[in-house]
Amino acid sequence: MKKILVVDDDVDIGTLLTVFLGKKGFDVSKAHSSKRMLELMTAGKFDVVLCDFRLGDSDGVESLAQIRKIDPAVPVIIITGYSDIKTAVTVIKSGAFDYISKPLIPDEILHTINRALEVSNMDSTVHQPVSARIKESTQGKKDGYIEGESTEAKELFRQIDLVAPTNYSVIIYGESGSGKEAVARAIHDRSNRADQVFVALDCGAISRELAGSELFGHEKGSFTGAISQKTGHFEMANGGTLFLDEVANLPYDVQTLLLRVVQEQNMKRIGGLKEIKLDVRIIVASNESLLDPNHKGKFREDLYHRFNEFSIQVPPLRNRKQDIMIFASHFLSLSNRELSKEINNFDTDVIDCFLQYKWPGNIREMKNVIKRAALLCSEEVIKSKYLPVEISNPDKFIQPGDSHPGMKSQGTDLKNAAHEAEYETIVKVLKQVNYNKSKAARLLNIDRKTLYNKMKAYNLD
Hints:
The chain is of the alpha/beta class. It is built from 18 helices and 16 strands. It has helices spanning 11-23, 34-43, 60-70, 85-93, 106-122, 151-163, 180-189, 211-216, 233-236, 252-264, 301-307, 321-339, 348-356, 362-376, 389-392, 414-432, 437-444, 448-457, and strands at residues 3-7, 27-31, 48-52, 54-55, 58-59, 76-80, 98-101, 170-173, 198-202, 241-245, 266-267, 276-277, 281-286, 310-313, 345-346, 381-382. The strands form five sheets. A five-stranded parallel β-sheet has the order 2-1-3-6-7, with helices on both faces. Strands 9-10-13-8-14 form a five-stranded parallel β-sheet. A two-stranded antiparallel ribbon has the order 4-5. Strand 1, helix 1 (11-23) and strand 2 form a beta-alpha-beta unit. Residues 123-144 and 399-411 have low confidence and may be disordered.
């Protein structure tokens, strides 16, 4: 049972966190002061420390320094209010694992703790700040990243090494799941900003209404629902690197604001008057050309030229045959650690399946496939029976035009015919956009949540 130390001078919050985490299977201790925290840490070892930024007898910087003297390796998660986020980022740069902001959301707390535990299992050394949170390890590879043995992989990392020391903005192109964020992190970690923060934002996961606030922040009362001040991603990344994934999803009016910020290297929060000076390197990613003629007018050409000081194309996994089993072995090693298993290898049939499969979801899909197979596997070797049917037996996998399992088409059954048509359309569009769900949802004229629900219903997730 993992041991968690909750430190908060608000007795009610401390008690609620203790009860919640206890129900989730953790052994929880609580402290209401820095002094009591140090007493508990001296008496026993903890797997994670969850510490409020402002204690009655200490602040986040001082608390972190005190914790590090007793246990240099324990991951520390800072609890902070919105008004303290800038200071919290400074604390993270000093070695905290991450921060969570009030009001506290149970799922976010649990997710952050589990990530901290996962990193702790992978590496018993001192935890790095959020700017280099997880570098998936592999022996003998520069910076801990898997470079691969293929010609395509070597060319990719040659370009990374070339552009990293500069301050150029970079556009990273690649299919969904091909590792664009990993490439962005590799550029950051090999740059002169490596000791500064790396902040990532998925532009496809934020609503049009909140895009400006997420990027630039806002002042309290600047619009309906702005009940407190919010620090945007640009401000959080100041001094470091900002990675904007699926940047083509940003609304056109937000692109106009973004162009000004990139040109002038300063910004104002939404509803604010104060100019904030910026020093941010920008890396953006897209799975389609930002100047695609089919989407003319969607992305500002002048903003594209600001970003396009250097561009990198990440090859899809299917074009990196020599690297497939390198990644597979790496993900199996991670799964063994996570599940406390000792699966030694892959059956020869599995290797053949992996090499023949097209991997439409790329590296992300492979990671999930191996995690699932490792969970199901009760032997020392992963066999084809533990793989999804589309990989182990593609001839039996449902293709567009086939009936979906459970749909017994019966001639004049209009309801089943409608379901089959819907299924075929979703599959066709997903393949057309290389399984980019944001783009698929737009083409299907539905929101992402509806697409996810339909994919789950049709066993496409």
